[in-house]
Design a protein that fits this description.
By secondary structure, the chain is mainly α. 54% of the residues lie in helices and 5% in strands. It has one domain. The chain is globular. 39% of the residues are buried. Bound molecules: zinc ion. Its EC number is 3.4.24.-.
Length: 245
């Protein structure tokens, strides 16, 4: 689901899926918005899409994490077809990517995610949501489910990168605690981005309730990946241990 928090006003619970953040999902902004044309010219938007699609393709060819997630999805009966399941679109600048459960589609925000590294991070995050949706009867309207899949996405990707950078001479237990805090904060931001109708306290309570179970569920990556380590490659090499091809 959405990757960053927003401070929007409450909206109708039933209708709100966070898609106001993804105007192209409503078929509204197929053309460049006025401000994009004013700032960059319409050609820039087209260039962004091409470069975004190139980055996506590149990740599927070269990123061990993306390839691992691809294998895991395939082994679970949810093989990804790049043209069908991944879309580069112009989004609200508050988000960098998202997963659309209605269409089982991943959105990469071409106007925000401009580097290959960023596209890799978003792809892996959203592919974890896709994997959870494939593996379980997942209802993104259920706060417990939403919190769980956001905890897993933050745990397996985003926070693991960060914790490795801040390790230094910190004690093992401090790192563990920092990592768990990072996952909670990141998950909170993601939940609130998709569900601005939910109060922060309510979201936090749900995150706390499902935290341990979802934090300890490391499938399909099997480890919390550290930055600049061999973990990514190792996880990909060990995929057959989990039955992924
Ligand atoms: Zn998410």
């Amino acid at each position: 689901m959405a990757d960053q928090s927003s401070g929007s006003t409450p909206v109708d619970k039933e209708d709100n899926w966070g898609y106001d953040l993804y105007p192209e999902r409503r078929g509204e902004a197929a053309q460049a918005k006025w401000w994009q044309v004013a700032l960059f010219g319409a050609g820039q938007v087209k260039t962004e899409k091409i470069s975004c699609e190139r980055n996506v393709y590149n990740c599927f060819q070269n990123s061990p994490l993306v390839k691992l997630m691809y294998s895991a999805l395939k082994a679970s009966g949810c093989e990804i077809d790049l043209r069908r399941h991944i879309a580069c679109e112009v989004c609200d600048v508050k988000v960098s990517g998202g997963y659309d459960p209605r269409l089982n589609q991943i959105v990469i925000c071409q106007n925000v995610a401009r580097s290959k590294g960023m596209v890799q991070g978003i792809l892996t995050h959203e592919m974890i949501h896709m994997f959870d949706a494939c593996r379980h009867e997942l209802s993104f309207k259920d706060l417990n489910h939403l919190a769980c899949t956001e905890i897993r996405a933050a745990n397996l990707t985003h926070c693991s990168f960060l914790s490795a950078m801040t390790q230094g001479d910190a004690s093992f237990f401090r790192i563990q605690k920092q990592h768990a805090e990072c996952v909670k904060n990141k998950a909170l931001g993601s939940v609130l981005a998709v569900r601005p109708d939910v109060a922060k306290e309510e979201a936090l309570a749900v995150i706390d309730k499902v935290f341990l179970k979802c934090y300890n569920d490391l499938e399909p990556i099997g480890r919390r990946v550290r930055r600049n380590s061999a973990d990514m490659i190792r996880a990909y090499q060990e995929r057959t241990n989990y039955g992924y091809e």
